[in-house]
Amino acid sequence: MATIIEAIQLAAAGAVKELFQIEMAPADFPIQETRREFTGDFTIVVFPLTKHRIGNPQEIGEKLGQKLVADHPDIVAYNVIKGFLNLSLSADSWRKFLSDVAENPAHFRNTHGKDKTVVVEYCSPNTNKPLHLGHLRNIILGYSLTQVLSANGYKVIPVCLFNDRGTNISKSMFAWLKAGKNDTPETLGVKGDKLVGDYYVNFARMLSQETAPLLEAGVPKHEAEKQASSMLAVHEMTVKWEEGDPEIRALWAKMNGWVYTAFKDTFQRLGVHFDRFYYESEVYQRGKETVEEGLAKGIFYTTGDGSVEIDLTADGLDKKTLLRSNGTTLYITQDLAIAADKFTEFGMDKSIYVVGNEQDYHFKVLFEVLKKLGKPYAEGLFHLSYGMVDLPSGKMKSREGTTVEADDLMDEMVEKAAEETLKNPEKTSGMDEAELSHLYNVLGIGALKYYLVKVDPKKRMLFDPNESIDLKGNTGPFVQYSYTRTQAVKRQPDAAKLGVFSPENTPEEEMLDSERTILRMMARYPEVLREAGESYNPALIANFAYDLAKEYNRFYHEAKILRKDFPRTSAFRFALSASVGDLLKEAMRILGIEMPERM
To answer: Taking a C-beta distance cutoff of 8 angstroms, is the pair 374, 293 a contact?
Structure first.
């Protein structure tokens, strides 16, 4: 079913062909909502047509407007303002649109991605510490992107890469052995990622104490750390792991197991899932096969010390080492292997990496290397580079133990939601403890997710927990509260007496400006969804939901929805209110946010 905007684009293309004998695709007519200070529902920008030398913008707009009004009964009026053709649709067409939306929820989905597969890699944590606030933005952005793409018709494969080996993992292992306490998550009553992360921080403190005398003697920090006995022991442990030492491997498997169990709990709490997990420990060596391929093709070369490099200076990049002189691999080596695995397993058309912008250069190099190798999937690779998250107190630092852990932050948000809800206890009267607990969780986690996803991914952001939970402004709770109003309307006794809304039954009252505005916004949603999918920007969905919630509240306050004396108006407004609720719920579902029925 064509959307209203698609129908206007099709009509405009037909009119231009008939009037000016110019072939144009419907998509060449961008449609936007008419600005509030002008009369109209949707606007066509006429300026691009002037390049065909068929008149000035005013003349072209007048001819096109007259043609559209004459040929299409749904378009009842037009006006041209400085090259912008504003079109007004009939009230009948809007009522028909509302009826279609109410009967067919698929109107809120697209099919642009039909028969195409997209792999989305996100989260990708190290197994030496808990998930933190930065991971939360990654997870929430990555998950919502999978839902945006799915709603656009793509087959989406969400995957996660665990960086589960290497020096940082060995640091936690060494510190745990050094303490000699045999601590476990069960004996301490803590999550496994928290326990392992504490030992990672302990190692940093141990190293600092060891290097202090060297630093005082004037030894540079990086040299002092190399000389420290604890760091030498960590390197020895890493080498033993690579050699397959059974004791080291057993300890590694045990401590990583603690972390995986903890991560699973956090993922479940956030409502995210993955179709496939990759592990660095399983693929890092296989990247060497790609290195051998590059050497055989003459794309890579061996340096004097035995390492393998590629020279990308002609492509605006630098020389990049792909294999160290001692034969050990780097992050890029494993990424070469995983890129191949994804294509082998899923045959994807697109592969998206949701990774912070500190890795921009890494992905430029990775993609260029794969292009040089002639990989069939190289052109479909994309790095969704997002900005870091700051707190009012400043930047987080993992090794100093100053990170805000994901679980702690979620707990804090749920507590704040409870505090805010209890300020108006009458609104939740009748709810039992289980229902209240669920509500606090829905509001707290929803506030966190919405605040992190509403900002354009490319921008660095400041997360303010207090602001995120506010019922006023661009927040998750505001959108959730607006939704509960639509559900409260459904529960009103008079609602059960309404007949089914029929577009042929003209309401007793003329359509309000807020009603027409809501309908225009709903008609535009498929375009917002398409744009969010094409630009990989779920923030567009969040901000659409906020704008729709604002407009619904204006309608809610200025219109009496259920009126005994005007049954046809009541049926129309009830259907409009219910459809807004459906769309708000769908938009927030895409963001991974549950909607409460009461709050």
So the answer is: no
CA–CA dist 382, 455 (Å, integer):
20
Q: Can you say whether the dihedral through the CA atoms of 12, 18, 19, 24 is positive or negative?
A: positive
Element (H, E) at 495: none
Coil vs helix vs strand at 309: strand
pLDDT per residue as tens digits for the range 277-309: 999 999 988 899 999 999 999 999 999 999 999
In this structure, which long-range contacts are made by residues 28-37, counting pairs with CB atoms below 8 Å and at least 24 apart in sequence? 31/5, 31/527, 33/520, 33/521, 33/524, 34/86, 34/87
Query: Strands 117-121, 155-162: parallel, antiparallel or unpaired by DSSP?
Result: parallel
Q: How many residues in the chain? A: 599
Spatial neighbors of 262 by CB under 8 A, at least 6 apart, are: 130, 185, 191, 192, 193, 194
Q: What pLDDT does 402 receive?
A: 55
Residue type, 52: H
| Beta pairing, strands 308-311 & 319-323 | antiparallel
C-alpha span between 500 and 583 (Å, rounded):
19
Q: Which residues of the chain are under the pLDDT cut of 50?
A: 395-401
HSE of 280, CA atoms in CB hemisphere, 13 A: 19
- Looking only at the bridges linking them, the beta strands covering 84-89 and 42-45 are antiparallel
Using CA atoms, how far apart are residues 314 and 248, in angstroms rounded to an integer?
44
Which positions ≥6 away from 255 have C-beta within 8 Å? 127, 169, 172, 173, 176, 192, 196
Measuring CA to CA, which residue among 216, 57, 54, 193 is closest to residue 131? 193
Q: How far is CA 389 from its chain centroid?
A: 14
SS3 413: helix
Angle at 459 between CA 454 and CA 465, to 5 degrees: 50
Strand, coil or helix: 116 = coil
Q: What is the CA radius of gyration of the chain?
A: 29
Q: Which helix (H) or strand (E) holds 31?
A: strand 31-33
Q: DSSP string of 373-404?
A: TT-TTGGGEEEEEE--EEBTTB---GGGT---
Burial, 472: exposed, middle or buried (Cβ in 10 Å; 0-12, 13-18, 19+)?
A: exposed
Closest CA to 147 of 540, 492, 514, 429: 540
Could you tell me the two tokens for 284? Answer: 């890092």
Stretch (H or E) spanning 162: strand 155-162
**What pTM was estimated for this model as a whole?**
0.93
Look at residue 397 in the predicted model and tell me its pLDDT. Answer: 44
Residue 104 structure tokens: 């067919």
Cα separation, 540 vs 523, whole angstroms: 15
**Partners of 383 in beta bridges:** 353
Contact 138, 123 (CB under 8 A): yes
Q: Residue 553 is inside which H or E element, if any? A: helix 539-558
Q: In this predicted model, what pLDDT tens digit does every residue of 520-567 receive, in sequence order?
A: 999 999 999 999 999 999 999 999 999 999 999 999 999 999 988 999
Q: What is the pLDDT of residue 1?
A: 52
Nearest to 295 by CA among 308, 284, 283: 308
Q: How far is CA 123 from CA 129, 137, 237, 351, in A?
A: 13, 9, 27, 15
Q: What are phi and psi of 506, to 5 degrees?
A: -65, 125
Query: How many angstroms separate the CA atoms of 455 and 332, rounded?
Result: 29
